[in-house]
Amino acid sequence: MEKKYSNLGYHVCLLGRTQTKLIRTAEALTNNYSIYEVDISSKKDVAKVMQLIKKEMGTIDVLINNAGVGTFDVTENLSEESIHQMIDINLKGTIFCTQEVLDDMKKRNQGYIVNIISLSGKRGKVTESVYSASKFGVRGFTESLALELEPTAVKVFGAYMGNMKTELWGGS
To answer: How far apart are CA 52 and CA 49, in angstroms?
Structure first.
């Protein structure tokens, strides 16, 4: 998705926890991009980075919430750490990033928020109990946010992707 926007001439800001992964993603971009390391599970970190982006780049016209982590095992085998990580990154991270762009988008009465949800946000699957719970949460957040923003020209979309060739599913 970032490649499409880059090819259209947009400046793409890549945000993530791991600079090496961000650099690898940036190598496929043809136009301007910036890289920002951030832990999206931290509201404070998200606010700091989003303010920096606004200062350096100007307004944020499109937000694509695409971060996601998953630990896939039967429920009783999931560690407390992996449960926190899935809820914190998949759900809270989406909320925190969205909160940081909403005020400006509403003031300008324009903008797009795209939440990459996953088909696991529509139906549960074996070994995906908490991952699905986090994605069902993103689905509820997306649907409720769209209703909140109905009186505005700010648009919210949820994309229900299947298994993609990413590290999450054993791809590269």
So the answer is: 5
Domain extents in the chain: 61-169
Alpha-carbon distances of 172 from 12, 40, 68, rounded to whole Å? 21, 22, 15
Cα dihedral 69/80/46/49 (nearest 10): -70
The torsion region of residue 95 among left (phi > 0), alpha (psi -120 to 50) and beta comes to alpha
- Catalytic (active-site) positions: 131
Candidates 159, 136, 155; CA nearest to 147 is 155
Over the chain (172 residues), what is each successive 10-residue block's mean pLDDT? 79 92 88 92 98 96 94 98 98 98 98 95 95 97 98 97 58 46
- The pLDDT value given to residue 163: 61
Verdict on whether the full-model pTM lies above 0.70: yes
The domain covering 61-169 belongs, at the CATH homologous superfamily level, to NAD(P)-binding Rossmann-like Domain (3.40.50.720)
